[in-house]
Each structure stands twice: as structure tokens, then as C-alpha cells.
Amino acid sequence: MNSRKVIWKKVRNFASAMLPFEFHIDIVDLVLKGILIGIIASAPMGPVGILCIQRTLNKGRWYGFVTGIGAAVSDMIYALITVLGMSFVMDMINDAQNQFLLQILGSIILLIFGIFCYRSNPMKNMHRSGNQKGSLVHNGITAFLVTFSNPLIIFLFIALYAQFSFVIPNHPIEMCLGFLSIPLGALLWWYGLTWLVDKVRTIFDENGILIINKVIGSIVILFSVIVLFGTVFNLYKLPHY
Q: What is the pLDDT of residues 20-38, one digit of tens each?
């Protein structure tokens, strides 16, 4: 066991010597947060989610996945806008009291979002997929435009960033890695969704969409309540960098 510790210590020292910069925060933790943010932002069954499912059923799995890629690109732009906007007010955000209030607000926003997701019927305002397949590029661009037309997702990103203490000042390298993990999380969601729909295409119908939406809403509600409870009663503290 001691020899393993010595070897691991030598590996870390060698890595530190080879890297042109030093990591001051837990990169794995930040990346996992980014992946989770990307999944939560993509999961609700909005118009593009239904469009993705329709295209998977009507045109094939890869048409559905490309639809998800278009949505992920749009989300990445809004996620970047949110990061840049919050970075300008980092002095205010880093204040302990303001950070506490921001996390409370983020929990409430997430709770409202989860309730809305659970109670909503995504089939009412859905964008129906056309009968012609079209090119993969065309399917991706149309999905991007559908998603980009809804800038309200910025408020969801603000809530998620507050919950996970995701925006970290004066750490551009680490923040870039964390930010790139957001579209990775989104792509993981769209890949998993299209895989599932493709596997159960013979039994998948509108009720399946409603079930997915209610499950997602329930998870978001549960998560927001747990975080809100933990914040109010000081069961955990956000890291300070």
C-alpha cells in the first residue's frame, strides 16, 4: 500500500511539472457538475424534445440525434451568455450572504420549473416533423432555430449555476473545461433518449412522452426541494475559491 502511495505521489508530481498551469480546484467535480447541468437543461420535453422523438420514430435514430445536436449548440450559446453575464457580477456573487440568497432563488426557480414541467402537456405546442427526411444538416439547423427561439432558458442556467456554484472567478482554464462539459451532458441525454425511443419504437406513443415529462419534472422537483432544504438549514456550504 505504501509503495502505491509513493508511485501515485510521483505521478502527480510529474504531471504538475509537465503541465504549463496548475489546477487549483477539483476538475472532476466541475466537469461532473457541467455534465449534470447539460442533462437537466436538455431533459424537459419541450418542442425540440418532441421533435427529436418524432424524427427518431419517423426518420431514424440519427436524424433524432442530429436534432439533439442542434438543440445542444443553441443551449451552449445561451450557457456561454449566462456565464459571461454572471462573471461581470462575481464580486457580488462571491459575497456569502448574496451567494446564500442566490442559491435560495435558484432553488425556487428550479422548483417552479419542475412543477411546470410535471403539469405541462408538451403535445399542445409541438413542432411536427415533416414526412420528407431532408439532410442531417437541415434537421440539425431547424432544431437549433427551434431551441434558439426560446431565450428563457437563460433563467434555468442562472438557477443551475447558482445551485452548483459553477461560475468560478479567476480560473479561466478550469472554467473552460467545466463549460465544455455542459454540451457533453446535453449530447449524452440526446444520445440516450434517441437510443431508448429507437428500441421501444413499436410501443412508443404520446403517452410515453407525457410519462417522460412527468418523471423529469418529479426528479427536478425532488432535487430542488432537497437543495432548498439543505441551504435553508445550512446542511452544506458552497465552495469558495
A: 444 445 678 888 889 999 9
Q: From CA 99, how far away is CA 159, in angstroms rounded?
A: 12
3-state secondary structure of 126: coil
Yes or no: say if 198 and 61 are a contact pair by the CB < 8 Å rule. yes
Residue type, 224: S
40-53 burial, b for 16+ CB within 10 Å, e for fewer?
A: bbbbbbbbbbbbbb
Amino acid identity of residue 212, one-letter, is I
Which alpha helices (H) appear in 27-95, and where do they start and end? 27-42, 47-58, 61-87, 90-94
- Work out the angle between the directed axes of helices 47-58 and 136-148 (0-180°, nearest 10): 160
Q: Cα–Cα distances in Å, from 219 out to 27, 34, 216?
A: 26, 18, 5
pTM: 0.73
- How far is the C-alpha of 54 from the C-alpha of 26, rounded, in Å? 40
